[in-house]
Specification:
The chain has about 90 residues and is mainly alpha-helical. It is built from 5 helices and 2 strands, in the order βαβαααα. The relative contact order is 0.13.
């Protein structure tokens, strides 16, 4: 898609999140449907495939998402019980 090539793929992994069925490619259930999609894929706009990648997979967006994940990890780490403090007995 980054090269402007529509995708024909099965519904596995991240395919449903990446391919807009009928717009940037086709999500098909089996090999027969993939073969039939070869005829239809010629009608898809290659520039739209490239634009979808540019809209959704920018460096800025990737950095923002990494920061969000790291922030969640830090918050979870800070909220965890302290195992050393839990073993201490009052003196």
């Amino acid at each position: 898609m980054a090269c402007g090539t529509p995708v024909i793929a099965t519904r596995r992994g991240a395919v449903p999140e990446i391919v807009a069925d009928g717009e940037t490619g086709f999500i098909v259930p089996d090999l027969g449907a993939a073969a039939r999609a070869l005829v239809e894929v010629r009608g898809l706009d290659r520039a739209r495939c490239r634009a979808a990648v540019e809209e959704r997979f920018t460096v800025d967006r990737m950095v923002d998402r990494y920061e969000t994940v790291y922030q969640r990890v830090i918050e979870t780490w800070r909220a965890r019980p302290d195992p050393v403090a839990a073993r201490r007995t009052p003196g």
